[in-house]
Design goal:
The chain is of the alpha+beta class. It contains three helices and four strands. A four-stranded antiparallel sheet has the order 2-1-4-3. A hairpin with a 5-residue loop joins strand 1 and strand 2. Helix 2 runs antiparallel to helix 3. It is globular, with a radius of gyration of 11 Å.
Length: 77
């Protein structure tokens, strides 16, 4: 499993599967080959849903926003 964290406060958000992580890697822009964080907002989540993200991943990412306009999450294995 892969752990997700809120990059702003280091809060543990939950775990995703390696397949869900690969979906994020394939769907999101990375600044470098070792980039392990992503900025999310509602538009990003809509984009991921449109690309076929599974419901559990989207639910976890929506919870990570927690009413904020955007959030940066990071992953760690």
């Amino acid at each position: 499993m892969v752990n997700l964290y809120d990059n702003d406060n280091d809060q543990f958000l939950g775990q995703i599967t390696p397949a869900q992580l690969q979906f994020l890697i394939d769907s999101m822009e990375e600044e470098s080959t070792d980039d392990q964080d992503y900025y999310l907002d509602e538009n990003t989540l809509d984009y991921l849903e449109g690309r076929g993200a599974d419901a559990a991943l989207v639910a976890l990412l929506r919870a990570a926003l927690a009413g904020r306009r955007g959030a940066t999450i990071r992953w760690a294995q």
